[in-house]
Amino acid sequence: MKNLFYILIIMCSFMCLVSCKTIKNFFNPLGEETSKTYSTTNKTLEQNTAENTTKKNSLLPDSYDDNGIFSEYYEKAYRRLNTMSLEEKVGQLFLARCPIDGAIDMIKDYKIGGFVLFGRDFENKTLDEVKDTIKSYQDAANIPLIISTDEEGGNVVRVSKNPALSDHIFQSPQDLFLLGGLSKIEDDSLEKANLLYKLGINMNLAPVADVSENPEDFIYYRTFGKNADETKDYVTTVVKASQSQNVSNTLKHFPGYGNNVDTHTGISIDDRPYESFENSDFIPFIAGIKEGVHSILVSHNIVNCMDDSYPSSLSPKVHNILRDKLNFTGVIMTDDLDMDAIKLYTSGEHPAVQAVLAGNDMIIITDVAEGYSEVLLAVMNEKIPKELINRAAFRILSLKYAKKMI
Predict the structure, then answer these.
(1) How far is CA 256 from CA 33, 208, 276, 302, in A?
(2) Cα 204 from chain centroid?
(3) DSSP code of 269?
(4) 260 with 271: CB under 8 angstroms?
(5) Average pLDDT score over residue span 84-105
(6) Distances (CA, A) of 242 to 153, 174, 194, 279, 304
(7) What per-residue confidence (pLDDT) applies to 57?
(8) What's the mean pLDDT in 121-148?
(9) What is the pLDDT of residues 374-385, one digit of tens each?
């Protein structure tokens, strides 16, 4: 009898368990595991919906979103771009040699993107005079200006030649390295950037990223003077130090100067095979790109293995290599279009028009009035697609937003 009693208790307990499970499944017909999956899926759907909503609220076209170095500021740049006239967009493409007279008028008339300052712009001036002059340029501009100069050190210095601005002339990278290796290079880059920033200069057209180990080369004394791997370390050191002080760097002279002649006075033709660029010249540029360098300047050399018809600065093929193979998303600019090397290779077009068609974002030029007029006319005549102007102005605006200039 006692055994029968125990058996009844066990059966009742089992029936209760089954009933509870049945009731639970009644209210959760998907089952426990399925319910968890459903919950996770629901969260994913909510996230996707939120992302899609954000995308719908974004004006930025997918074609502009290259996840580039300034991508955090693309949305702001694109919104600003859409408020600008064609004339304002074209003006942003010009990095003008600062005129002796009429700089304020140039800013107002052509809405230029910025100035390049040369030795004459600093000669016999006090620090306050330079600061006040640059401030007057910025005050005249609707969109803040890139103010640049070539303060490489050694043979090419603009600012530190003036003892009222610097107590010493900045030394060449080769001399600095002999004095204290890359640590000395870093200290020099920080000091240089701090001086430029104090004056109101926000871009240094340096360092020279060309590879040259031969003192007979025209470019040798402006370079690090060592092989590609050592030049890579030099470039990385300079870019990291300078841009930490909010002074942008410009690597030059892409695709690599090699042993070519001076393009200020004539054309330079480079017959080296493409492999020599891949194995040497490109290496410092790739290092600078990985470090986040803001801009790269393209030389006037004709590099036959890339384009035997046009100087690199005017060659779409060379620019495509920089964009597509080296994955550079920053601002590309020409070397000075008033150099002699450029004059015979423009296919009847103005050099500035050819430069835009090649893929440059900024054009270094002295005669802004003519260059601006020719580019604007070429856009109106549909020789230059408006989209090329938009993309160039967009990159320049993105840079300016990234530097907190706007």
Answers:
(1) 61, 9, 10, 11
(2) 13
(3) E
(4) no
(5) 98
(6) 14, 18, 8, 27, 34
(7) 58
(8) 98
(9) 999 999 999 999
